[in-house]
Design brief:
Two copies of one chain form a homodimer. With 334 residues, chain A is an alpha/beta fold. A six-stranded parallel beta sheet of chain A has the order 2-1-3-4-5-11, sandwiched between helices. In chain A, helix 1 packs across helix 3. Chain A is 44% helix and 16% strand. In chain A, helix 5 links the parallel strand 1 and strand 2. Chains A and B meet through helix 4, helix 5, strand 2 and helix 6 of A and helix 4, helix 5, strand 2 and helix 6 of B. Chain A binds a DNA duplex (30 and 30 nucleotides) through helix 2 and helix 4.
Chain lengths: 334, 334
DNA sequence: TAGGTGATGGAATACGTTTTCCGACAGAGG
DNA sequence: CCTCTGTCGGAAAACGTATTCCATCACCTA
């Protein structure tokens, strides 16, 4: 910047006033001269030096895993939203491992980011969460801001999905389209999101008139393979009049779908099938999956809004899912 | 750090020597005292202040789009590799728009990153590339290091895929398994990767003994929809003895597959079909796609290795694809 | 015309760290 | 016992920017 000021024939202070986000006004003539010199010299103010004075203008995103499509969509939306305000985004992944989460947060604190956005399916459900919480609190005490995406029982700003509510609506839909014997492929019992969805499915089915005795719940790994295995078990055990299978997410549903195809079970002819998440794969299978779409990009943008927001009370934002009816469900006679 | 030094009863300089990556040795007793004080006070050295002296220890990743699975895999691998060396990673997306690329690079230069990794399918094929090049050169002149992933005709370090070579091997495989009339669904003529693959397919088919007159090339949009459309056209025009369809990527192949299913063409019964990229979807369709797997994670890690490498001559790394034979191709009688 | 007032450029300082230089101290060798 | 040498702690400078404080200047009003 020294060079720019010299080239423009003004003092360092004037150059800074022009190039920094104008704390004070500068005469138009000088302003123009400085801008021209900066352009000519390809000058950009050093973010590190700038960070040493005021706020840092960088955001730290800590996510489980970028390769999961839903994470990628959220992180991408966050990057977009942050960028539109001129903030930089640094990304770290933890693979959901609480130890790595802790280590990552500790590491990232060195950047003195304006805010820390923690996106994880399993923040609270662990023994380490005490130390994690403590670390996040320390970060807040230093003036940082914590936003958690996907979990709402922590005392930080958060963006959560109304898993239970959306699942309830899906359950109601399944009940109202005439299904009477339903199997829920619920994924892992311990994970928060699948558990909330399962509870919502049950709510909705009951509300729609399905008898408790006619709702069966089976667990499996939260993956395509888990669904495949669960589906094979269902086929092997006999479907016993089951006319709908409700899966905790699309990946599981796709696995079940494959098992049904192997076993000669027609979807939706013999059994209706639903997923959750509306991943891209949901429209690339045959039949296309009836599912619940989560507004992931919106949630990501909302997280950045919270991260950059004015200081204030801790805010919990809940975003709703949307039922997407496609070809994997059909109306039953009765 | 002042507080830490005070708490440990040593000078600022000593604390720095212990906590910074030891430029000099400190008496074990003092060292321990400082470490204990830092732990107690939850102290982490300010990265910005640190960056103002030596090198910044941060890497800038500029990618087209995080939501594309292949990009996500590469970026994720880069993050992992960078992290293992203690570097921070900031990501920016440009949606492949050259204007945004330029603006992003300009913006990111403020961070004085140690290196800039540009991952894009279409860096060179544009009128703006002159200004882009100029900007990157200016960045290099300031001591930065530029690594380009996916394009090799720029004068920077690069990691490229041997599209043509891998396509050639796939072409040979198709020829050697007895296919004699082949249609290449080549995607867009203007894009570098599809064009290189098409050339490779032709090489391989010719080498495997397929006559030039028996290779037909059709173009389409590089997407599932493009493939669907192209596939429908093929079905409508009549396949005229075509016994293999070779697509420029998996997405196109999946589109073609759907068109064939609609049109009653059996894969691989009537026609063999191949893709390229080995995206997750390739194993989630029926039949599972024969394709070429690109070692994306390896390429990402390699890019970081170049980015962090010792100064030296510009290096171009070419990574090979691997033929993955699945169910969408079958051996022909002759 | 003189004094007051508002605008604005310039010098200096602070931010938190690393590193260089200097000085002190201890141990060893003559 | 003195001196030389090696080790290590402490003071200070430097990195690049934003901002505070001061000085100057022009303009307006009485």
């Amino acid at each position: 910047m020294h060079d720019v000021a010299a080239a423009a024939g003004v003092s360092l202070a004037t150059a800074s006033r022009v190039l920094g986000a104008g704390s004070r006004t500068v005469a138009p003539e000088y302003r123009e001269r400085v801008l021209a010199a900066a352009e000519r010299l390809r000058y950009t103010a050093d973010a590190a030096a700038r960070a040493m004075r005021g706020t840092s203008g960088s955001l730290a995103l800590v996510a489980d895993d970028l390769t999961t499509p839903s994470m990628a969509i959220m992180v991408s939306a966050m990057e977009l939203a942050a960028r539109s305000t001129g903030a930089f985004v640094t990304v770290s992944t933890t693979h959901g491992d609480p130890g790595r989460q802790l280590e990552t947060i500790r590491h990232v604190r060195a950047l003195r980011p304006r805010a820390l956005v923690l996106t994880s399916g399993r923040v609270a459900a662990d023994a380490l969460s005490g130390r994690l919480l403590e670390e996040l609190r320390a970060y807040e005490r230093d003036g940082g801001r914590v936003v958690v995406v996907g979990d709402t029982d922590l005392p930080f700003h958060s963006v959560g999905f109304d898993n239970r509510g959306a699942a309830r609506r899906l359950g109601e839909f399944v009940a109202e389209t005439g299904h009477r014997r339903v199997t829920i492929v619920a994924g892992a019992r311990e994970q928060a999101a699948p558990a909330a969805r399962t509870a919502g499915f049950v709510d909705g089915l009951r509300a729609g008139g399905v008898a408790e005795a006619d709702v069966r719940i089976v667990h499996c790994a939260v993956s395509r393979e888990g669904g495949l295995e669960a589906g094979r078990r269902l086929v092997a055990d006999g479907l016993e009049g089951t006319d709908a299978v409700v899966a905790a997410n699309d990946l599981i549903a796709v696995g079940v779908l494959r098992a049904f195809r192997e076993g000669g079970v027609a979807v939706p002819g013999d059994v209706s099938l639903t997923g959750f998440d509306d991943i891209r794969l949901a429209v690339n299978v045959t039949p296309r999956l009836t599912t619940v779409a989560l507004p992931l990009a919106y949630a990501g943008a909302e997280a950045i809004r919270l991260a950059l927001g004015e200081p204030g009370a801790v805010t919990h934002v809940i975003v709703e899912g949307r039922l997407v009816v496609r070809d994997s469900t059909s109306e039953r006679a009765g």
